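About this split. The held-out portion is used to measure sequence recovery: a designer receives only the structure tokens and must propose an amino acid at every position. Recovery is the fraction of positions where the proposal matches the reference. Here is one held-out target exactly as it appears in the evaluation file.
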């Protein structure tokens, strides 16, 4: 990866020791400590790289982090969001770490939107299912690893996937943004019981007639999910 391309895309970057997800130092999430200028890229060589969402330009970036694809698919469907729409969007930019049932989608926030508080959705068993990631409650950034960082669990390099390109991140779809804003405004977030059968993925993705192009796009994205 040419780091200068990430800088040119407006990304604020975080140097992270190779083989970990944890940034170096306690002050890494201060805006003055991120890498955002070409002359700073030497600090990233031979390291993992994180994107500091809240400090990206011209608008903050964010991640929809899916830790359990099957459960997140059903949960989002219950909120009126079809995963097939996300997968087939020609501008979708995703990251795959090699972790089973996991995928991460990157977007920009709309203009004149402040960094949004990160919100987590857990499965009934308490495990992480889905996370809307951007900033902490006090406005400090959170970060997500970017390719070609090495995932500490899978020991594989993160890769870009999807039909879009990181240099042209699209604005987060309004249905996803509305869910996020609703979570922020809710004082109590309860995860309802999630039920699905082994065929739920196919039934949701193919619940209506598909074109050959949409089927091909969906298969390409699902190639990265066990």
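Reference sequence for scoring:
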């Amino acid at each position: 990866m040419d780091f200068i391309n990430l800088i040119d895309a407006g990304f604020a970057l975080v140097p992270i020791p190779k083989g970990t997800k944890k940034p170096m130092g306690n002050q890494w999430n201060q805006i003055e400590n991120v890498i955002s200028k070409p002359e700073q890229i030497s600090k990233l060589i031979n390291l993992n790289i994180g994107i500091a969402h809240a400090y990206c330009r011209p608008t903050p970036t964010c991640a929809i982090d899916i830790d359990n694809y099957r459960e997140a698919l059903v949960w989002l469907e219950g909120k009126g969001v079809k995963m097939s729409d996300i997968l087939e969007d020609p501008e979708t930019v995703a990251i795959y770490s090699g972790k089973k049932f996991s995928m991460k989608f990157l977007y920009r926030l709309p203009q004149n939107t402040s960094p949004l508080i990160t919100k987590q959705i857990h499965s009934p068993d308490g495990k992480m299912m889905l996370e809307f990631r951007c900033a902490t409650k006090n406005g400090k950034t959170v970060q997500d690893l970017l390719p070609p960082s090495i995932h500490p669990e899978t020991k594989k390099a993160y890769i870009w996937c999807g039909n879009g390109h990181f240099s042209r991140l699209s604005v987060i779809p309004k249905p996803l943004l509305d869910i996020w804003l609703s979570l922020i405004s809710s004082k109590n977030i309860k995860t309802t019981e999630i039920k699905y059968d082994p065929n739920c993925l196919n039934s949701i993705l193919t619940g209506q007639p598909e074109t050959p192009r949409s089927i091909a796009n969906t298969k390409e994205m699902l190639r990265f999910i066990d």
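Annotator remark: Strands lie at 13-16, 48-52, 61-66, 93-96, 103-108, 119-122, 128-133, 143-146, 159-161.
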